[in-house]
Amino acid sequence: MGMNETFDIAIVGGGPVGAALAIALKDSGLAVAVLEARTEFAARDPRALALSQGTRLILERLGVWDALAPHATAIETIHVSQRGRIGRAVLEAKELGVPALGYTAEYGDLYQALATGLPDAGASLITGARVTAVRPASGSGLVEFEQAGMARGLSARLIVLADGGKSLPGAVKVKDYGQSAIICTVQTEVAHGHRAYERFTPAGPMALLPLGDDYALVWTTANDLVETRMGWDQATFLEALQASFGDRQGRFLAAGPRSLFPLRLVTAREVVEPGLVRIGNAAQTLHPVAGQGFNLGLRDAWWLAETAMDYPCEAYGGAEFLAAYCKHRRRDVGGGIAMTDILVEVFANDLPLLSQARGLALSAMDMLPPIKQAFARKMMFGVQAW
Ligand SMILES: Cc1cc2nc3c(=O)[nH]c(=O)nc-3n(C[C@H](O)[C@H](O)[C@H](O)COP(=O)(O)OP(=O)(O)OC[C@H]3O[C@@H](n4cnc5c(N)ncnc54)[C@H](O)[C@@H]3O)c2cc1C
């Protein structure tokens, strides 16, 4: 095995979160390596992501927002409701004094925008490198990878897992919601006017996010219905969508190709270990109901870079360094996971009393500006925000 370049930080996975970390470390003077399994920093992925206002601010500081802005659609209004029940809340950017509540962008465009910042980040970019094992240790750990059919390795004081959580073994807690997300673009009779919808139905939440001239649909579907819905022809799909969503945007006119993502809450049992930190989806993979996954992962990257700047590199991966990082992240991550999970559980239940209580809660939020503002701030800047 070819071994032994030595780095201060090795980032495993150059997806949106790993790339953001490398860029955030730009002026640190540290020796950073990014190992990415793909042969280039580009991805075709049908996902559309809701990016919070806080995420925009971080992307601006990283110097990549300008590359993303032409591909991002502003969300100026969010309409939250439950199907067939009273109660709704409408969040308006104007009312909250911000230019937008958030933005929608395709995963591939976000990836591409971050990739524009990588060449200047000063990190060693090792592409086509599939990491096969990590052996973290306080002091210095090892990363083993395959590149062009060759087994290779490097050592690093700190190994950061940003691989999305699917490729390397690690103890996790899994909560299977028994649901999958069907996603596609849809065209509606009425133009979106920068209005997003979060609509809770007993079968799971559905979201419509403005994206370009269309909407990006995330339709949560119980697993036993997935095959049927994926198999529907266009007319049947649009008819069922209309029946589920209603006619607030007029008729659904067309839908793009559908993709499927199984929905589970997966959390790493240990976010940190001596010599290792997990960030982004490698630390927590959430249900997309509140559009929090990447937003939370980006803040992981940001705060890990901040912690790295606060300590000498000899301390990386040691107990004090890891505790400092965890202290920064505990409340935001714990709150984001809890909020997402509660939304899925509480809104998926069709017990009459519960649905009345939900309706009252939504109406109360709509009528009480301080509650609405507190909720909106948490959606825009994270659970720790006030
Ligand atoms: C349907 C759906 C809708 C969503 N909507 C939203 C939303 O509205 N808002 C939001 O904030 N989030 C949303 N998310 C979540 C968001 O997509 C993730 O949180 C985000 O992509 C996580 O980024 P990441 O970089 O941690 O992981 P990933 O995006 O999975 O990237 C991991 C990277 O690591 C690389 N890699 C993997 N294994 C290895 C290896 N062994 N060696 C080297 N490289 C490796 C991969 O090639 C990839 O580039 C949604 C998710 C889904 C499924």
What's the SSE blueprint?
Blueprint: E1 2-12, H1 16-24, E2 32-36, E3 48-52, H2 53-61, H3 65-68, E4 73-75, E5 77-82, E6 88-92, H4 93-96, E7 102-106, H5 107-117, E8 124-127, E9 129-135, E10 141-147, E11 150-161, E12 172-188, E13 195-201, E14 204-211, E15 214-222, H6 223-231, H7 234-245, E16 252-255, E17 259-268, E18 272-273, E19 276-278, E20 284-285, H8 293-310, H9 319-347, H10 352-367, H11 369-381
Parallel strand pairs: 1-2, 1-11, 2-8, 5-13, 11-19
Antiparallel strand pairs: 3-7, 4-7, 5-6, 9-10, 10-11, 12-15, 12-16, 12-17, 13-14, 14-15, 17-20, 18-19
Helix pairs in contact: 1-5, 1-8, 8-9, 10-11
The chain binds flavin-adenine dinucleotide.
Flavin-adenine dinucleotide binds at residues 12-18, 35-38, 47, 49-50, 129-131, 162-164, 167-168, 181, 183, 218, 261, 280-282, 288, 291-295, 297.
Structure report:
- The protein is α+β, with helices and mostly antiparallel strands and 386 residues long.
- It folds into two domains: 2-65 and 107-172 and 268-344, FAD/NAD(P)-binding domain (3-Layer(bba) Sandwich); 73-103 and 176-263, D-Amino Acid Oxidase, subunit A, domain 2 (D-Amino Acid Oxidase, Chain A, domain 2), CATH 3.30.9.
- It has helices at 16-24, 53-61, 65-68, 93-96, 107-117, 223-231, 234-245, 293-310, 319-347, 352-367, 369-381; strands spanning 2-12, 32-36, 48-52, 73-75, 77-82, 88-92, 102-106, 124-127, 129-135, 141-147, 150-161, 172-188, 195-201, 204-211, 214-222, 252-255, 259-268, 272-273, 276-278, 284-285.
- Helix 1 (16-24) runs parallel beside helix 8 (293-310) and helix 10 (352-367) crosses helix 11 (369-381).
- The radius of gyration is 21 Å and the shape is globular.
- The mean pLDDT is 89.
- Bound molecules: flavin-adenine dinucleotide (FAD).
- The site of flavin-adenine dinucleotide has 36 residues, from helix 1, strand 2, strand 3, strand 9 and strand 12.
